[in-house]
Each structure stands twice: as structure tokens, then as C-alpha cells.
Specification:
Layout (H helix, E strand, L loop, with lengths): L19 H7 L12 H27 L6 H8 L7 H10 L3 E9 L5 E7 L1 H18 L2
Helix pairs in contact: 1-5, 2-3, 2-4
């Protein structure tokens, strides 16, 4: 029986992504404003999208540095992201994109509540590798 590889095109039953490219695109997902909203809503959505995109990349990079797993709070601290931000939402987005997984471990947070520990997936590592490669290509004269 041929089980294929992680990077073969397939639809994940949990998140619906068809391939590594879908997961990669999820890092760059933009917020949207309704067409009936004032123009300032569109401006705000673009600003939030840029911040969210940067935060997702930084959180994924933090998980790459600690592949055994981090809580969302630990990942934010490693990434230098404020704990007053939407870091947990960004980590959930990374998990829905199959770039992070739940390790089934739990650790107590700074508030004393148990938190799930997430770890980067091979797809997450591949997304970062491709991203680094495209950054190097872009900066080459």
C-alpha cells in the first residue's frame, strides 16, 4: 500500500487544506472588510493583516527553535510578542493550517491554568524553509 509522503497533495480531514501550499498561504491570509463598511475599515483590515502575518511567522519561527513544543504564551515570549496581543489566536490559525499540532501535553501558564503544548509540524518547517529561501533570493542583487 502506497501511503505517499507528507508533501503529496491530499486533503487534511481536520483543517481542509489540500497541500503544503495551502498551509503556506495561510501565513499570508488577509483580514477583510465588508464593502458596505467605511473606507477606514478597509485601512484597518490591511493594517491588522500585516501585523497578523508578521506575528504568525514569528510564532512559527519560535516553535522551530523549540521543536519539542511550547504553549502559546511561551511561544509569544520566545518570539518577543506582547502577551497583551492576539498571540493565541495566531497560534490557533497556525494549528488550523496544520503548521502546528497539539502534542497532547499540558503545562501550567503564568496565570496558573493548564495550557496545551503545540509543536511545529514537518509542514511548518517546510513553510519556513521555503520562506527563508524566497527571502534570500529577493535580497540577492
Amino acid at each position: 500500500m502506497n501511503e505517499g509522503t507528507l508533501f503529496d497533495t491530499h486533503r487534511c480531514p481536520n483543517c481542509g487544506f489540500e497541500s503544503i501550499r495551502d498551509s503556506e498561504r495561510s501565513l499570508d491570509r488577509d483580514a477583510k472588510a465588508r464593502s458596505s463598511d467605511p473606507d477606514t475599515s478597509g485601512i484597518a483590515a490591511r493594517m491588522v493583516s500585516a501585523k497578523a502575518r508578521t506575528m504568525r511567522v514569528r510564532l512559527l519561527e519560535a516553535h522551530a527553535r523549540y521543536p519539542q513544543g511550547l504553549t502559546d504564551e511561551e511561544a509569544a515570549e520566545v518570539a518577543g510578542i506582547s502577551l497583551q496581543s492576539e498571540y493565541a489566536t495566531r497560534c490557533s490559525e497556525l494549528m488550523r493550517a496544520a503548521l502546528l499540532i497539539d502534542t497532547m501535553q499540558r503545562r501550567v501558564s503564568s496565570t496558573g491554568t493548564p495550557r496545551l503544548v503545540r509543536a511545529i509540524t514537518p509542514a511548518g518547517m517546510e513553510v519556513l524553509r521555503r520562506r527563508e529561501g524566497s527571502d534570500e533570493t529577493a535580497s540577492t542583487p
